[in-house]
# Entry
Amino acid sequence: MKDGMCSKRFPKPYCNATRQADDGYPIYRRRNDGRTVNVKEITRQPIRCALQCHKYNCHINVEECSSLTSVKYLNKYVYKGHDRGAVSSTVETTDKIQQYLDARYVSTSLAKTVIVVQLPVHLEYQHNVMFRANDNVASVLQVGHHTMLTRLFELMSNDVAARSLTYQEVSSHYRFAKSTQRLPWYNGQAKQWILRVHLTDVVIGRMVYCPMSQIEWYYLRLMLRYRKGPTSFDDLWTVDSLICATFQQAPL
# Structure
């Protein structure tokens, strides 16, 4: 309130038809039908969000961005970036560029740990295998036979609880690592999906980007995003007991 009036210009003036003001903001149609609402024990004229006024006991108004000026005003806050500050360095140097450190300020509400797990997406037998020039071929084939995706199929085939999760959701409940306690269906020395004991950290799974120019790769990623509990590549191909020829046909 300012001088007994609302600083946000509430209540809005009556208007028989929606029109655009000189400053670019819309003035919505608001006919004088004689209705009133009680907000904070004060009788007010009703606005567009009368239900929210009763629920939250405050003035709420929703407006649509219909001009370049209002859109720029909104995007200024959306894309302004994080809070930052220039920190002076105590090291004596003549380099003025290095004299100040551009640092990001993280408050206590944003300081919670967020872990992002990169999830590979590949077609069957088309995954990358890394090895050294002097590595044994047999050991390379054994270690490189499985990936996070193939281990996912193995997990879904044997763990009933995991079948309610998608590929991206698995990383929030399981971690991909070596463990001394092998699962009953595990056979080998590589990593596997292991149930998380502590769920305090926020873990987000993100599949790698697949361009539409690689159409089968793209549709495989699309299916892994929404399909829960896939047990194999053939299972992803199967829709209503019918085996599709390509991944592109399966979602359709």
Observations:
- The first strand starts at residue 19 and ends at 20.
- The CA atoms of residues 124 and 233 lie 7 Å apart.
- The chain has two domains: 19-77, 115-243.
- The two ends are 57 Å apart (CA to CA).
